[in-house]
Design a protein that fits this description.
The protein has one domain: YbaK/aminoacyl-tRNA synthetase-associated domain (YbaK protein, Alpha-Beta Complex). It is of the alpha/beta class and about 160 residues long. It contains 5 helices and 8 strands; from the N terminus they run αβαββαβαβββαβ. Strands 1, 2, 3, 4, 5, 6, 7 and 8 form an 8-stranded mixed β-sheet that branches. Bound molecules: 5'-O-(N-(L-cysteinyl)-sulfamoyl)adenosine (5CA).
Length: about 160
């Protein structure tokens, strides 16, 4: 997958929505939150990982943006949304977001996706998110993340 095309799509989506955050290219690939944290020099908890789930009954995607150190409690999410969460495979993720696993951003998806934001991300002034490619990230504030995604802030773990 081409770096430029996918990172540009995220940069353009940011600009179109009026955000000035800049997508930066990292020297190495970051497929996990721990790798991304090491690459940008922040705590793993400051990485906003964008996880796609498949809602079992409706077949719709759900975006959960979680702090890098947290494991999402699927039962908690299911209770809140009123639908069981199923596993999303790589094809499902690409089909709905337009991006590959390891680079899924919180913004710029192919379609509008309902979003949930981990409240733990609000402990930090600045956080980092993937920008379409395993080598692309951007820095943002939790308040910006909320505006970008119109996500519901809650405990996800
Ligand atoms: N670029 C880094 C940091 S910004 C990144 O995107 N990390 S991430 O944590 O947001 O994305 C990786 C996540 O993809 C994993 O936490 C995992 O939940 C998900 N994932 C990995 N493999 C699969 C798979 N086979 N199917 C579905 N989801 C997967």
């Amino acid at each position: 997958m081409a770096y430029k095309e996918s990172a540009d799509r995220v940069q353009n989506a940011l600009r179109e929505q009026g955000f000035t955050n800049e997508v930066v290219e990292l020297p190495d690939s970051t497929r996990t939150a721990a790798e991304a944290a090491q690459a940008v020099g922040c705590e793993a908890a400051q990485i906003a990982k964008s996880l796609i789930f498949r809602l079992a009954e409706s077949g719709k995607p759900l975006l959960v943006i979680a702090s890098g150190v947290n494991r999402v409690d699927e039962n908690l999410m299911a209770q809140w949304i009123g639908e069981t969460l199923a596993k999303a495979d790589a094809d499902f993720v690409r089909e709905h977001t337009g991006f590959v696993i390891g680079g899924v951003p919180p913004i710029g998806h192919r379609e509008r996706i309902q979003a949930v934001i981990d409240e733990d991300l609000f402990r930090y002034e600045l956080i980092w998110a993937a920008a379409g490619h395993p080598k692309a990230v951007f820095r943002l504030t939790p308040a910006e993340l909320k505006r970008m995604t119109d996500g519901t802030v809650m405990s996800v773990k």
